[in-house]
Amino acid sequence: MKHRFALLLLLLTSSFIWSCQPTKTFAPDEIALVPQANQMTLGQSSFAFNKNTTISIENEAQQGVAGWFAGLFAGSAGFQPEIVVGEKPSSNLVQLITDAQLGAEAYTLNVTPKTIEIKASGLPGFFYGLQTVRQLLPVAIEKKELQAGVEWLVPAVAIADAPNYRWRGFMLDVSRHFFTKAEVMQLIDYLALHKINTFHFHLVDDQGWRIEIKKYPKLTEVGAWRVNHEDKPWNARPKQQPGEKAEYGGFYTQDDIKEIVAFAESRCVTVIPEIEMPAHVSSALTAYPQFSCKGTPITVPSGGVWPITDIYCAGNDSTFAFIEDVLTEVMDLFPSKYIHVGGDEATKTEWEHCPKCKARMQQERLKNVHELQSYFIKRVEQFINAKDRVLLGWDEILEGGLPPKATVMSWRGMAGGIEASKQGHDVVMTPGTPCYFDFYQGPIDQEPLAIGGNNTLMKVYAFEPVPEELTGDEAKHILGAQANLWTEYVTTFDHVQYMAFPRIGALAEVLWSNKALRLADDFTRRMALMMQRYEAAGINYSRSGYNVSVQSVADTINRKVTVQFESELGKGKIRFTTDGSEPNASSPLFGEPVLLDQTAVVKAAVFTGNHQDGKALSREFNINKATIRPVKYANLYSPYYKGSGNYTLVNGITGTTNHGDGEWQAWNGKDMEVVIDLQQQNEISSVTVGALQNAGAWIFFPKKVEAFVSADGKQFTKVGESVTDGDPLQGGLALKQYVIQFAPVKAAFVKVVATNLGVCPKGHSGEGDAAWLFVDEIKVE
């Protein structure tokens, strides 16, 4: 009798405890999965994690993913769910169940008030199911310190999920700038949040060799280090001079690599090593010049190199022995199926003059150096295939003939990927637009210096990896896609995170979720909530999607400027001013286009309630006596930088530090000379000309700017000039206003001449090449 009473008491107590658990029914707009689950049904109520929650696993192999998930609670919740093997409590349970019928990365997730059940065929599926649970938990789960008063609820849902693509990748270049082992592992951990499964490790390039090769110690003793010119523009850094010490750099020991690979495996991420060849190898040839065509000593460049002429000698058998030795050690460290060998941007000038390379071409009956590169890559592929691996290379490996079993990474647009898939080869799509994350991601004058271009969050989200021109069978060769983060301008790990997030979330959804589910407005809603998770996790993400950009059109009839604002994540919430004051929550809300008929400083920002969500835009519009007046050109601007046409220099709109923003006109190696027809006699006393310098892009301030006036447009009188002083290699990215003031004079025509520097100066990486001159607004007052 006592036993029955005790059992009844236990049942009643358990029921009472369960009934006291917090519960909530979630609304759809409270859920923010990125990537979106492919099938999801939202139910009533929720599951509550607490100190009594148990995670039930079937075997020790599942311990790793279960332990990682349980560890999320240790800091933020102050408890850690117990992990049990083979046991199955009736409630307050997270259970992993093997279902061999599911795909390799697929999972199902069923959440009820009593249990969370995840089914998968293996560890990746379980891991991704748990990552989904993580994103369903409050964002406070990402905190490292104890969070008081949080109810650790997961909404009741039923999910069936699997990725659309096998390859969901991210590449980090650690050659141009080096990042520590701990930083690399932290990045991999962050990537796994969005179910990224491939980490492409760019370990070798001209500017640094980053992996220990025991048979060739000088690769890291010498090749991993360069002169520290971090204070100079990347593409304007001088060569190492005698007596200068190479102090910037670093490398990963083989033990470091093993640790990174093991950590990535625990996050279901495969690490793909890239060992560049036959070019992008200055760091290797600095250490071992005997493997070049000339065999002469060189130094590791501290900045940009173009063209890429340092190259392995394809006519020297010892070169291939060296490469095979290196790849042997690499393959011993990386268990990945794919070994990336680069193959890109090889200028083959040395091969054209090398006796050994010429002999090789004759011996192998090769028609040209392109076929010699194909021979080179095919020979390396044979070695890699013999080790039961697959050669992966950039799309230049198509030139001269694709190796028989190679996989192509298409970066120069989609064309290389299309060609390779039509030939029956597997392809990873990674076109510069929109997959290069070293491009800007917001209004460029509001962003840190980047390499160029503008791959915004929503441009990434609109990407489709499979080109329409492929047939069904050809499309099967598209394995997926990846983002590439080259680091010429990315010097810190904080900056790496800024460039990667949130754009990697957009790409992850492209690669995981069904196209029908990818709705831009819903994604921006979810991403706004996901950013709160980034914040809690300590990820230095970019809020550029909230920044405001401006589009303006010159009204040539009424001499007004029409202004419109845009924001990817702040639609309908832009507030602005036109008097130069900072916008606030009480400023006018943008709706209809804004018309300007006088000089104004326009500012705009996104607001949610009283909170400003992104950076404020500030743009000057100068309406003056030259505004929207006819312009004649003595030397026509470059077709690559023509702005908005013949009114660009007098449209009232000042250009930004982005030379591709559409407000600049440019001349390559030539002077700018224009005549502005004021259309009537005006009394004027100043001419102002805007110019840009970006030595890294071969853009330099003019030597001088001169102003001339005329009554008839034929006879001109010089009224003044402004001269550029100082070293053109100093100062980096900069804007300059050339102001020429003079005694008041009446004129109907104004001629402006800006004298081009001519050629890139001594010490610049493009020394002797034609210099660019960039000019924007000309003001006459």
Note the gap between the termini: 105 Å
Computed CA radius of gyration, to the nearest angstrom: 31 Å
> Would you tell me the overall average pLDDT?
94
Judging by the overall fold, what is the CATH architecture of the largest domain? Alpha-Beta Barrel
Helix content: 10-25%
- Overall number of domains: 4
CATH topology of the largest domain: TIM Barrel
Uncertain ranges: 1-19
Tell me the strand percentage band. Answer: 25-35%
Report on this model:
It is built from 18 helices and 33 strands. The strands form seven sheets. Strands 8-9-14-15-16-17-18-19 form an eight-stranded parallel beta barrel, surrounded by six helices. The model is unreliable at 1-19 (pLDDT under 50). A hairpin with a 2-residue loop joins β10 and β11 (208-209). It has four domains: 21-161, Chitobiase/beta-hexosaminidase domain 2-like (Chitobiase, domain 2), CATH 3.30.379; 167-544, TIM Barrel, CATH 3.20.20; 547-621, Immunoglobulin-like (Sandwich), CATH 2.60.40; 631-780, Jelly Rolls. α2 (63-76) runs parallel beside α3. The longest helix is centred in the N-terminal third of the chain and has 18 residues, at 2-19. With 781 residues, it is of the alpha/beta class.
